[in-house]
Specification:
Blueprint lengths: L7 H17 L17 H5 L7 H19 L4 H19 E2 L4 E2 L1 H20 L6 H14 L3 H15 L3 H13 L3 H14 L5 H26 L9
Antiparallel strand pairs: 1-2
Helix pairs in contact: 1-10, 3-4, 4-5, 4-6, 5-6, 6-7, 7-8, 8-9, 8-10, 9-10
Amino acid sequence: MLFDLRGRGRRRTVQVIYASLAILMGGGLVLFGIGGATSGGLFDALGGGGGGGNVADVYQKRIEQYQARVAAAPSDAAAWAALTRAQAQEAAATGYQQGTGTYSAAGIRQLQAASRSWERYLAVAPAKPDADLANLMTTAYRDGLNDPKKAARALEIVIAQKGATSALYAQLSILAYLAGDSRQSTLAEQRAADLAPKDRKKLVKAQLAAQRASIDQQRAQLQQQQGAPSQGLGG
């Protein structure tokens, strides 16, 4: 994690950084899965969001069922995948607040549980992990847990399984930049430009430069609040 998220104001500023990426990429080109190889972005993964009541009961029963399966067979990759998906979907369906674009405390806890299950899945997964599940976890890490490093790792699985596109590599470039990995960010940016149509290569680079500048500006504001010196995320 790159940011000290203690305090509502600081956490909200970090959330603004993520939200600004969709705007800078042309109304959500990257963050909402448009133009990429993934099967959906934020709203697809959320399944509508903001639910409760019977929805929570349904997901909780599924979670308990899959928890029993992994307890009985800890090396069952399919069971870990199913548990991860159920936990992430419950967090989205019952803990995501579309009005504020944030997760409730209960939603965050469920995403954290999904993250733990995802790590267990990867430990026993086949050579080619489930790309759709990786896409779901990219969303969870990026928009819920504010963990760009793990979001980037999940997105790399999506790219490897679904195929490379300019939009996916553009998203990877920004996630790597947020995670402080300037080398990976630069390499992903070049791939995004290489895969873009000839008349859009310069535009892709310009959009990514604008995103980095916006991130640096937001980060500088955070560091002023925290009393720390400012420097670029990728440095």
